[in-house]
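Two entries, shown back to back:
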Amino acid sequence: MAPYPLAGQSTGGSIGAYLLNRAKPHLPPWLGVGAAGVAGALGNWRWGESAAAGVGLTLASVALSGATWWIGRSTSAQRRLHSAITVASGSAWVTAACLAGPMAGPLDDLYLMGGPALALSWNVRMLLRTSDPSGESGDKGLLEKVGLARAQIGAAKVEPNRVTAPVALAPGEQTNEDMAKALGNLASALDLPTSAVRYTPDPDSNRRGELVIVPEDMLSEVVEWEGPSNVGGSIADPLVIGRYDDGAPLLIWLPGDPEAGRNSTHILIAGGTGSGKGDAALNLLTEVLSRRDVIVWFSDPKMYQDFATLRPALDWAAEGGASTEIQVAAVEAVIPARTRWLGAHGYRQWVPEAAKTQNSAEHTCRPDGTACGCAGMPFLVTWFEEAANTLRALGDSAFTGIAQEARSAGVCLIVSLQRPSYDQMSTSTRASLPSVIALGCDPRDEGFSLPDEVLAAGAHPGAWGNRRPGYCYAVSPGIPEDRYASPGRTRRFTHRALPVMEMLATWTQRNGAGADPVTAGAARSVAGTAYTGRPDEDAAAQPAGLRAVQEDDMDTVGPRVDPEDVDIDPEADLPGAQAGDDTPIFGQESGRKPSPEEARELFAQALAEFEHNGQMIVGPVDFMDWCDRHNLGRSWVSKRLKEAALDGRLEATNITGRWRIVPVLTAA
């Protein structure tokens, strides 16, 4: 026989077990009534003729009633009075029954009527307490200790390692702010860390909310990263970057979802030195790279110290400095191009269908309404690691335009830095980063990482500092608001993760999305040869030293000669001295004076060299070696830069004295 009844079946045993289970909490008052009857009968058999027993029983009854009243002083007045009346009535009947007999006079009728009445009164009290969230609670004394004596806790919802209880504060006397201030004392009373007690205010009330208590810190155990959670899935699916303190997975969403009403987001990753910010970034990056419909542009001034294994999977990898400058400019250029494409194909925001070939008449750019067959557009993640360096070089508003405009274009901006203070990042940029992964930090920096309401709810990353690497709070669209103040922990990357990361990079090269023509074209219109797209798998699989030797061998067939010396005749006499050769190059007008035609030709060659090498941001300092080779002065270069800007070959950047080369392919 099956151990459980099938659906649609019922048995007398199962119904009886259900009723018994529901009745158990209400049985104690009735058991007390029955015990009083048995005590009266046994007492009469033992002391029915004893005057001394009568005196003792009377004194015991009075003492028990008084003790009940004294013990109940820490409870509510209603509970204290109810308990005292119940004990006094029961002890008085037992005393009378012991002396006169349980059947004497009206004692039997009093027992049959009064006993059930008292038992039912306690049953009613229990029903009211469990059904009314604002009713009394046995935790009244605990709230009184923390200065919220008149607050009331409703029926608690008990889950594995998590207790959630509704709280109603005293009307007109207490507010949600008072509860938030009392969380530290409440944690002390429960002998728990501050982060284990949180309070989520009710948005529709200033005196109601939910109190969450996590008695055991499940984050103390280190969990190593073993691989992505959803290889081959969509970037629109949740990204698993760790777990919460109650064991639930810590999830992040990047694109928006019009069906769920969730907006696309940008992310700030903030944490002090030693807080585990690198592991948090690796958790997020590996999840992103394992999805089929996303490309990643990544900038790391630390030369990919933590991300070298994943570099072959990146569509564009910049190393800081001028390469990051041009990457920022390229991101700014692709936003309107991508927005225009999405709008032309009927998308109000990026969704996974936009990454597929457009074979639907519903999403076509053709005026006649037939399917256009355009290549799909993958989601774009632009990641700026150690962004403080970039912000110092480009200014604190370097990401402002991107942050404000990129979300509708299917572009996610991720900024990672240690201290997101307003002297490093503009207030406009910070306000445009709605999501944050906040790791341990200095207590004085908490307000830069998390919103005030999350801090008020009990979040306290300053308590961790660098003592608990990987501990974090996550605030992002898609995460329930009551989770904002719940601490989580990312998974740790060790040397055992390297082989899996290498496999992930290979998978991404074989199966990951490539840049669509619109995005790639807009990037090349700004970056020129600096943007090449993700490297081939075969080239990336070779060791860097071997690739360098092979490339060198390919470029130097025959004698090894510098390109600038190819046309020199080794047998010809050296040229004679020219005017200006003995004059200092920098600090004054110096060097030889080429003709205007020669000057334009030389400078055009210089810009072509920079463009060929992928250096699309230049200034006078970049021409120092070039001036040495051609015996030209710095002031001459400054004049040529201004002329090139007027001709449209250069474009001014946000930094004085720095110019962006306009690729020849767009100038033609």
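entry 2 starts here
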Amino acid sequence: MSKPLSAPTVCLSVPTATVGFPRIGRNRELKKALEAYWQGQLEIDRLQQTAEMIAQENWNTQRAAGIDYIGVGDMSLYDPMLDWSLRLGIVPERFAALSGWERYFAMARGYEGIPALEMTKWFDTNYHYLVPEVGDRWQEPDFSDFVATVQQAQQLLGDSARPIVIGPVTFLRLSRLSIPLEQAAAQLGDRYQALLETLQSLGVKGVQFHEPALVLSDAVNFQSLYERLYQQLSAVGLPLHLVTYFDDLGAAYPWAVRLPVASLSLDFTRGTNLALLQQHGFPPDKTLGVGIVDARNVWALQPQSVLTTLEAILQVTSQIQLQPSASLQFVPYDVRRETKLAAPLRRVLSFAEQKLEEVRLLADYLKGQAGAVDALQQRANQWTAFSAFSPANSTVQSQLKALTAKDFERSLPYEERRKQQIQLPLLPTTTIGSFPQTAEVRQLRVKLKRGEISQAAYEAAIDAEIAKCIRLQEEANLDVLVHGEFERTDMVEFFAQQLSGFALTEHGWVQSYGSRCVRPPIIYGDIFRPQPMTLREFKVAQSLTGKPVKGMLTGPVTMLNWSFPRCDLPRQEQAFQIALALRQEVADLEAAGAKIIQIDEPALREGLPLKTERWSDYLSWAVDAFRLAAGGAQPQTQIHTHMCYSEFGDIIEHIERLDADVLSIENSRSNNETLFEITDAGYRHQVGNGVYDVHSPAVPTVEQVVRQLKTALEHLPAAQIWVNPDCGLKTRRWEEVIPALKNMVAASLQLRTELQNSVSRE
């Protein structure tokens, strides 16, 4: 039994609130409707009806949980930043000839050669947002869709509805600006003011302004901008509720709490907001939104810790409301559906609906309501039972303690081992790893899971897909092949299924971007590899071709960052445990004949702390985790890694310290900025230049790829360049993939010939 909990010393009635909810639907209805619309199988009005249905179900769920103030208006058909770009009249010139939904989805996905908006990570999450492009041409704002949503919410929720608006400073800071910040802010302020005046006319009682950019280290440099804009917006007279999350306010705290808003929400699950609150106090004329229930992880609250934090907060101010630490979009809907998880584990998990219950329970506890103490005590007891269910693994712990500096290093420096590695033509071509996951491939896994086909029959069918993939790559004349990853549901989930210490859910979907949903695994115990994970498929693929086939692994930091990690163990130790398992897999692939092994780390940059002063510690162990996974490879084994939709300029020295032989990057959608960041820093290793956008259905022409490669050749020696798409091809269709790859190879061959002729003339 855990330590007995006591009733609150002073009873207090506090309101509850939410700041966002999952928007994909309990059964991924939005994903299915979106993809049906894109395939011409669903009309736009039916797609909109699906989104409205999900939004209303979400509102009803939050109301039924007893939440007092419910955030509304965060529903989106693709991405809220895209929505607000259009509402504010911020439409890049290349989309000006389009209109309506054609324009909307062109900005999201591209259209007939028109590149989409850049996509990158939303702060330090695995959600991708579309980057607005703010120039000197603005269209008329149009808030009609948002206003209609708010009116629907008012009909259902009354005064409990609080519209969610992405704050103006965060919007600007996450945008690509081609005009001065002050000029953009002036126009933006007037448009936000007009929106508030409209909402006020509807009888809205308050609006949430989400400003997560306030937690960034350099927020202090924008103090005057925050003060000026919020002074303008508060003058409308509608109560503003300023919401921050993901970290603490840091040096911005003293002035941020004085902004002219009715309430300020802080995240008390990350960072040092409690210490800042205790040091600086809190204004008596404001309500403190206490983000006390962790919205970024699936673990249930631990009562003793949470109640201790609440008690400390109440010693500073009693004018509070209780809420999740951020939008609940980062966790799945309902843990009660996960009936196949072991009971001791399931009882200490909390998804979105359970987190609503936790917020309500804490409010009931503070109110002194009968049964609240007992309910919290039961949760504490469940944590005690879980500790016995998941003990430490002595073998893993011994391996970690035995590590030395040599375990984190390749046996030869890059320049020396490169001479021993596979020799390929100039501008060698390859792909990132995955190929289309057709309905037939997905159905194979369903049939295996249901017991409708045997393991042998499943493997035979997968082998047939691998053979087809190898044949098509050879026909496209690629230099380095992959097996296609048809056996993999997801690049993290696949490995988590085979590693001890991970748990998998059946319905634990969260949105990554657009219609893309993932089921993050849950790390609940020490991690180790019971047996090889990728060997069988690699051997099958390599037996079918004389060309090299890459061994394909997901790196330890990405495995960690795209899972729900343990809350009782440092992330560094969890990453090292995964790295040790991958190190064993690298050795097995080498023994099976793999000359090239790719260890993908797309989430390395994503995991950076939002405070720059904490970067050094994170990058030290994150890079070491990759080096531990790859460090045992023989010099002749070429180690690749892939990173996408991240900015590398400010961490390039750490990227180089990974010591990967080849780094493949997303580059086409970022307009070569990623390439420039790498080359400007003097990166010495080989670079796989992402030459076309795999998230667009458009097939690149040979001329487009040639232009992309010529830009690379202006900044890098030809011997340093690889040619590949900017990410995996899993979400594309074969009829898009094959011509795109053939055009990519044709462009490489054209430039290869030009380079060789140039050398001959010299």
